[in-house]
Amino acid sequence: MRRSGRPSLRRRQDMDTSDSGGVTPLGRKTAETGINFTSTTRFSRGLTFIRTHTLFGQSPARRIIPQTCLLQENADPQKIAFLLRKQWTLYSVTPMYKFSYGNLKEYSRLLSAFVAAEKRKGLAVEVGNDLGIKVTLSTLLGLKGTDQDQVAILVQIASRSQLPCENAEDKVVWSGWFCCISGDDLLESVPDDFTCLSLFLANGAESYTAIVGSWFQKTFDCYFSHLTISPLNLAWMAAMWTGCKVDSHMAATELVFSVPCIPQSLDISYAIHPEDAKALWDTVQKTPGEVTQEEVNLFMDCLYSHFHRHFKIHLSATRLVKVSTSIASAHCDGNIKVLN
Amino acid sequence: MHQRGTAKNPKQAFQVRRSSLSAWQIEERTAGRKTVDLKRAQKHEKRKQQSASVQPGNSTQDHLEQALTYFERVKDYIPLKKNEVLQKHLTTVESIALQRGLSPEGLDVLLNVALSGHLADTVNTRILKCLIPASVIAENSVVSAVSRLCVGKCSGSTQLLFLRWLIAMFDFIDHKEKLHALYGFFFCSLQDEKLCPYVCHLLYLLTRRESVSIGFSLLFLFFQGMQPHLQALLSLYKLFCPELVSITLPAKTKTYFKNSESLWKAAINTIRRRNQGTSPTSQQLILGTGHPQSRKRKWNTQLILPACSADTNNPTRSKEINHADILSHSESFPVEQLHTFSQLLQNIHCLEFPSQMGSVLRNSLLLHYINCVKDESIYLRLYYWMGQTLQEECTWYKLDNQQYEEEFKDFLDIVYKTECFLQEGFSSCEEFLYKSLPLWDGFCCRSQILRLVSWIPLSSFSEMKPHLCEPLAQLFFTSSLYFKCSVLESLKELLQNWLNWHVIQLDMESDPKISPLNTTLSGLVNSVAELIHFVGWIATVALRLENNATFLLYFILDFYETVCDVYLKYNLPLLVMPPPGVFYPALLSMDAVSLNQLCYIMYRYRTNLVAAKENELIKKTILQFKFSSQTYQEYNQYIMAMVGCLWTSSAFQKDIHPQGIRLDPEVLKKTKVQEVRNSFNIVHHPALMGYAILFLQQVRVHLTGLQGLKLFIESSINRVSQVSQTKSGNAQV
């Protein structure tokens, strides 16, 4: 299945909501025996908590779907609407050092100048001046899974229109946002100097993403890496999104599989009527509000056998590369689009 | 004064040529300044006195005095043509200046006349070209020269030459406070197109943190263009005031200023040599941190290791620094300026960490610093960065890995060197190994990966086993002899690192009352024991696979040389005997080196066991850690087999080890080998055959070079005689 040999998603890069069965065998072992050598070596001091969580990229066996609305009341509907219906490229970000929510304005000024300087290589720019480019950092309230989660941050690059028209509005040319993945056990033990906004989503020209990313890397000593989604996680998404109720427009549930062929790879698109998919999922899911790995496997196996009956093709031997439902769509390359 | 100036000077950030003249300047400065401040009349007197006291033969000095007096008296325009007096004096000044340099007051006189406009341009040029200081240049002379520029009497080319001279001689000016006061004047001269590059260079040398005001930086933006000299100055402004200016320098530019020094270069070098005794290497003018930014990535444009630069962007952190300034009246010391160990010692209280912690890997001074700072955030920053970098750069996750492999190798080498330097493994590295070893082909970056294995921090072995041992064992069994030996070597180093770590821990926690030590110690003993057992297991299998190759056996026995001394050398109550699959191939080896190594190992085992027994007897108290009787038993079985084999010629009869070489007499008979009993004793052992022949040839009694065998014979075979001598001789080892 995993032809490219890419590393599977690490736990803290998982995009889904909280996990309950998250203790790895390692964590348990250490706790039981009470022997913990690593705590005595300096470079590992205080890092034990991370070991237990990131060492192995296993997906949790079970996830709870929160019954409460993820969006809290203080959310700005305009901003949230802005996030919808856009193709976002995913990046994972290590905790940021000395990031302060109080300095967003100052960061905006500096980042504006940095972007302008990068764009006009070799020419210095004055910080805070009108550069034709304006970067704004703002908070995205209400996007929290749990209370401990850090507040999400929205970064927008707007370019001023050239015409000196009075009500000419700035045109957003690039946007990106950082958010905290709820259920991130990292949070509890990370010192105060660090801010965990481990997921970064970008929409717009990659050159801007690179500029903004390198500024964050330089300023807050963090590391951006492109995030891919493994077929296993895509299957999870397919199952969980199928199970969601959608009131308005219903789009078909579509799964795209890639067949490694020479000279050109072959893509198989498998579209299912959303109601049929939902009906199948309802028969598979045992406890409402909870999804297990077995259920996900069973759901996919049912779809595979149905497909095999008609086309005599074993989809289980191919690679799931894309999932799209009425709720959202996700591609294994790390692109995601939330529709509803 | 000067020292402080150099240390805090921004120029170092860009590695601009600066010489350290402090050593000799301190002496010269006082004298120099005094003389310059003297009034003219006094100077005349002094000169007269000097000339009066001139020693015979020192007439050049006289000529110089005359010339200087002549130039000093110039009040009106004097043409050069047909003016023999001027010609003569000019030649005198030139020849002496190039030979010995000029005194501060001489320079003062000549500077004044050159910029006065009284002389022809060619004369001015000749004068400026020979303005070479013997020691220092008085600041006052420079200031008055600059004031003459303002009068505007001298031509453009003379002004230009003066600026070049000023840049070249910058380091020889004794003070710079008044020059700094002229910053605004120089700044205004930027408008002059011809002077601009040199003014930029001068400003670059003059700029200090406090000179960068809002006004200057804003004004300066008017002048800017793509010219490198302007970019260089701007980038300096940015360094001091990131909140005012932002600039990205194009990567390809290397030189930012025109060379002003060329005219005086030889002369300056002569002066320096004379003044310092040694010839300082002329440093090149390089801007930036010096890493070429050729990079394939669109994203993450820097090399794997970020460049070491101070934290200037983050207002949160700069604010903190300011706050600290108020409290301690000291500025933080930027990392770019840290070049020597003494600088580190002087500034260790106010050292700033780089904005990207990963850059410390290249900077051994900062690694020293890290070693003495107890700040958890340092390790966390390193941990996050390194973990991600290893994951992202790891070659065997990439399809087109050819391109990146060399780079990744370099990175792993740096990580390994850092671990050696700090004598400690990184946990991000450990995690990387655990995650990546199962996917490793055992070929890519082999030596780097195996070396990193040796720095895996000591942890419980049950945790290590599935992630390290299993993938490693799989590769081990299926790979070449050379790979096997490399793995054994790195496991030996791993063991040694663990043991060293334990010894250091013991030193630090010498207080026996600390109770957690006990649990840790038992855990430690278990882990070390399991590692040794693991190596014993793979060694046994490998010996079979490789037909007891001597090369392999050497690495295995090398490992056991560490194992047999764990108790005495590392103070760890643990002794693990080699498995029979290692012991017997070594004993019956065809090679003297292996046999000798085995004998040495058995000798060390004995020393350790005897010491342990003695300790038990002396202390009488119940020791928490005691070697089990099984260890002694195993040792005794081996030693009996060994003595039987090498000495008493009864190897096939007396070996009582269950996996030993005991054979039925019936079977032995069937082999039809004559004198089976003797075939492995010290005289007939195949490994020692060469020595036996040598012995016969040379009839020499002592066994050259076989120290291990000698020790073994002394300790285990001649024991009977020893026991009779010292009755107290212990232990039925």
Structural class of chain A: alpha+beta
Terminal CA distance of chain A reads 31 Å
In percent, how much strand structure appears in the residues of chain A? 15-25%
Q: Which regions of chain B contain 5 or more consecutive residues with pLDDT less than 50?
A: 1-57, 277-298, 318-330, 513-519, 727-733
Q: Given the structure, what is the number of helices of chain B?
A: 35
Helix content of chain B: 55-70%
Shape of chain A: elongated
Helix and strand sequence of chain A: HHEHEEHEEEEHEEHEHEEHEHEEE
Mean pLDDT of chain A, to the nearest integer, reads: 75
Largest interface: A-B, 72 and 76 residues
Percentage of residues assigned to helices of chain A: 25-40%
General form of chain B: elongated
SS-based class of chain B: mainly alpha
Q: What Rg of chain A, in angstroms, do the CA atoms define?
A: 22 Å
User: Main β-sheet of chain A, in a few words?
Assistant: 11 strands, antiparallel
End-to-end Cα distance of chain B, whole Å, is 73 Å
Mean pLDDT of chain B: 76
Largest sheet of chain B: none
Notable characteristics:
heterodimer; A: alpha+beta; eleven-stranded antiparallel sheet; two-stranded antiparallel sheet; 24% strand; disordered N terminus; B: 733 residues; mainly alpha; 35 helices; elongated; disordered C terminus; Centromere protein L (chain A); chromosome (chain A); centromere (chain A); CENP-L (chain A); nucleus (chain A)
What would your notes on this structure say?
The complex is a heterodimer of chains A (340) and B (733). By secondary structure, chain A is an alpha+beta fold. Chain A folds into two domains: 8-14 and 229-338, no CATH class; 41-226, no CATH class. Helices cover 29% and strands 24% of the residues of chain A. Chain A is built from nine helices and 16 strands. Chain A has helices spanning 25-33, 48-54, 77-83, 104-119, 186-189, 206-220, 231-242, 274-284, 293-311; strands spanning 62-64, 87-93, 96-97, 125-126, 133-140, 152-159, 171-179, 194-195, 199-204, 224-226, 253-259, 266-272, 290-292, 319-324, 328-331, 335-338. In chain A, the strands form three sheets. In chain A, strands 2, 5, 6, 7, 9, 10, 11, 12, 14, 15 and 16 form an eleven-stranded antiparallel β-sheet that branches. A two-stranded antiparallel sheet of chain A has the order 1-13. A two-stranded antiparallel ribbon of chain A has the order 3-8. In chain A, a hairpin with a 3-residue loop joins β14 and β15. In chain A, α4 crosses α6 (206-220) and α7 crosses α9. Chain A is elongated and about 65 Å long. Chain A starts with 24 loop residues before the first helix and ends with a strand. Chain B is built from 35 helices and one strand. By secondary structure, chain B is an all-alpha fold. Chains A and B meet through α1, α2, α4, β4 and α6 of A and α13, α14, β1, α16 and α19 of B.
